[in-house]
Predict the structure of Retinoid isomerohydrolase.
Amino acid sequence: FLHAHTGGYRKIFETCEELSEPLPATVTGRIPSFLKGSLLRLGPGLFEVGDEPFYHLFDGQALMHKFDFKNGQVTYYRKFVRTDAYVRAITEKRVVITEFGTFAYPDPCKNIFSRFFSYFKGVEVTDNCLVNVYPVGEDFYAVTETNYITKVNPDTLETLKKVDMCNYININGVTAHPHIESDGTVYNIGNCMGKGATLAYNIVRIPPTQKDKSDPIEKSKVVVQFPSAERFKPSYVHSFGMSENYFVFVETPVKINLLKFLSAWSIRGSNYMDCFESNEGQGTLFHIAKKDPGEYIDLKFKGAPIGMFHHINTYEDQGFIVFDLCAWKGFEFVYNYLWLANLRANWEEVKKAAMMAPQPEVRRYVIPLDVHKEEQGKNLVSLPYTTATAVMHADGMIWLEPEVLFSGPRQAFEFPQINYNRYGGKNYTYTYGLGLNHFIPDRICKLNVKTKETWVWQEPDSYPSEPLFVQTPDGIDEDDGVLLTIVAAPGSQRPAYLLILNAKDLSEVARAEVECNIPVTFHGMYKS
């Protein structure tokens, strides 16, 4: 794992130009014949506007990437999403909309009066959709974590329209990690206003394609509401778990201080990052709800403090909910370590910074559905294959201890993916992930969650992205398929390539190299 890096990783945090037409890629190996669609990915592509830099990993302007597969040939195309944040920045040659970690200064051309009045219009929330892309009905949306999602054309990469989710449901924002059922139903979660001016979390359901071809988003409904542990401070939520009949929501100690958020914003140069704080005493709260019909189950599950971004999978087994996730130990917010200045530092500095950060771990938690007050003090989990425990205390709180599925010092198994179409919400065996070495992505990993066996693909000075699983059409086994990942190889003759790995053993099937740099991407999808 631990070979030294020469600093080539800096390249994945560098601005690049969009393309006017698709570039042909140079293929070595053989592209599987069942790959006929396109790989769509999102990430930042513009890291400064004029002489104003963006400061955080999640600030650069959204760039959409596409690799197309046709008759064994591959082309690569990319376009900036024409968000308000992007268009206004390009027009005014400055940062106009405040991003996650970058404050937008007021327009220098405006006088004190017009500034005073624009202050009362309130906060302009960013629509910079740099995190993911997913289908809703027949449409495709590029997304971040605010209330704005952006409809895009997955073939031309054109930007079609900005959609404000607040127009349809009580939600302050939605995550970039929806769950999508086989019929196209979309579920997502976000912070909202609950009853009596308290904060809460809503799970939202967007139905599949409508018979009358109307927009499914207009039919969005709240399915169930989870309460917030702190009245004015909701936890940061990045994803949630969903099995066949239940939702799992993990309420971490990383909080959004709304009062700070609203006041700081208008008064001094502050950004979203300034509004996070940790509740050092809360630990982690685990909530479950029935899915259909939606019903919150009022049981108190609690565990040691973790930060958590990505659920891996969730399933029910013999009266238990088993959920696997990528945890970061402790209550500190991991995003504090993702400032671009830290990530662009030389390798010794990068390592030093990561030494202070929360430690990553893949964990399995188990929640018992059938809970009786008289069973205090004993482990309620009777599944034979896991060491995860749930123990009821005298006050009725049930303490969860996880089983560790993978742990390596400052070696994260992150950006997890599974054979989602066949095994999402079901008992499964394999997960695939991006290996972060002191936060720098330098390998592709596979983990057997039942035996804890691991496989690794790695090459020197190569920086891959989240691996997406594509099933072999006639595949029988869970891991019959390939993984698709975009690899930056800054020192090479061709500085980036699409890599296709056999999901069985992570052996290389093919690669398609391009003549341009490709910056970091976060999430995406294979569109068949």
Notes: The chain has six helices and 36 strands. Helices lie at 84-92, 112-120, 258-267, 340-343, 347-356, 420-423. Residues 8-527 form one domain. The mean pLDDT is 94.
